[in-house]
Structures are given as structure tokens and as C-alpha cells.
Amino acid sequence: MGQSWPEFDPVAPLSARPEITQFHSGDVARVRDFLGNHFTEHVLKVEGRAQHVDTVLRAVSVGDVSVNYVEFAEPVEIEQTVPEPIFMIGRPLKGELEVRNGDDYISGGPPRGAVLSMDRANLIRGFTPNLQFRVVRLERESLERQLSTWLDRDLRAPVHFEFPLPADTDAGRAWWGYVEHLWTNALNGTFAVAPLLLSEASRMTKAMLLSLQPHNYSALLREGVSAAAPFYVRRAEDYMHAHASESISMEELVAASGVSARALYGGFRRFRGTSPMAYLKWLRLERAHADLKGASPEEATVGQIALRYGFAHLGHFSNAYRRKYGVPPSHTLRAAHRS
Is the pTM of this model over 0.85? Predict the structure, then answer.
């Protein structure tokens, strides 16, 4: 291993720097439980089905942002089992690996890096011993709230980042350089003696990612457009709101807007950060969410409410609902009844 520390209990803050947590263990079950609590629930497999893998984690909490160093002595495989509304921005510092996030994929060692949306299926497989990672953990809700403030409007669709974020591009050098700067300042006690910097560092971390890594709202940030969408976008939105529980085609939206399909699509991309049909799906999810909150499990089912808003495939509806609200639709229905 690259560093040698005695084993001690998880989540043990260092007294001199309370923003730093470190963990060191070799028992696979203990490592899995700790990493599951710290990141996401997962299945951890070690090469040769071993029950021991020397593992080190050091974590720095900077406001609502977590910067982490993780090291495994042996090749491991980590498969996420429960979706979470968070982003993980990671790269290997040493070793070779492959990462799958939904349909996205990268492999190799430094300077590879990526932005993982943890509401999608995730698999990380290491090929070499002494794997070392840098990982930044961001809450989706916090990041999207900051973006919404910048744009002075509600987001009509979740943020979707491009997947690769390597350390050998201009954007990558700026981002990963800032992350290492943040890490160093935390280790040398800067935040302990200047705690007011914590909130600014948290805000800056999200600002750096939103500014440097392309996503579906990048054009809005670059252009600094007015929050007021043009008439044809508002006409299409009004039509969707009035007919959300009915079948709506793109041709009907074009007719309602009074402009061409190309102009309507461009208007939604520029002023709503998404396509017209994706906006419609977002609206229907909101309507379904409201109905689930107001329904009783004795009087309605998730399938009935999903079908009411055009979601014929219950599995697709459940996946989209979980990505947006962080829980399955059945949880919302049961919780509303209990309250």
C-alpha cells in the first residue's frame, strides 16, 4: 500500500482537523459496509474471492462536498446496487481500471477520469493491485439548486454531464488541479483556521464543474439568456399542461406553437435545457408524483397512475421516477397513505 496507518474505527475524525475522516481496514465485509455508507450501497468483490483487501480511505468534507482518496491493495470489482441522487467525479491516481455508468464506458489508468451519475447502473473494475483513486462526491439536489439560481429559473430537466473528464485536457487540468488544491488546503488545516472558506469552497467546486464540464444547460450558462422564453415555447408548454394525460405528438406541439419543428426544438434547447418531448416526460412525472402523493394504496396502484400519464412500461416509469425523486413510486404511494 502507498501509506501505512493502524486500523481504527470508521468515521473517526482527526482531532486537529475535524473536517478529515480516515478509514483503514482489510476485512471485506467491513470495507463494504463503510464504503456503502460513505458512497453508495454496492457489491464488493476481490480477485480470487478473497475475504481480505487492505483498504484506505481519507475523506474531506467541504460543506456539502466530499473529496476522497481511496486505495485498494488488490484488484476489486464494485457494482452499485441502489441508485442514489448524487454525482461521483473520479479518476485513477495509480493503476488500471474500467468504469461503466449506464451506457457510458472508459478504461485505462491516469489520466482517465469521468463524471458518474449514480442514479444509473455503475460498475468499477480494477485490473491491477495498489489501485488509488481521487473521488469527489456531490449531491445532485445541491448542484442543481446552484444552477437554478444562476439561471434564475426552475430546471425543466435533470442535469446530464458528458461522461469523460480526463486530466490531460484544458478543462480536466483546471478541474482536477482545483480538486488537488482543495485537498491540500484541507490537509494543511486551512479550513480549520478559516472556516468561512468552507461554504465558498463548496460553492466554487460546483461552479467549476458546471462551468468546465459540458452538460445540457451549458449553452444557457454561456449565453446568459433571459429567463423569459419566447411565445412559441410558452404556447407548447401551455398545450402540454392542458393535455398532459392525453397522447401528445411532436406534430401537435408544432401546431400549437405556431413555428417549425426545428425552431421549437431549438427554443426548448436554449430556454429549457431539454427537448420538447423530454419536457413533456418531466411534466408527466410531476403530475404522476402529485397523484401518487394524494392517492391511497387501497384505491390506486402505481401502474394505474403511470398509465394515466402515458407510461405504458412500468419498469421505465419506475426508473425515471427514481432518478427524479430518489425513491421508487411505490414508496411515495405508501408514504402518502401513512401520513
Answer: no
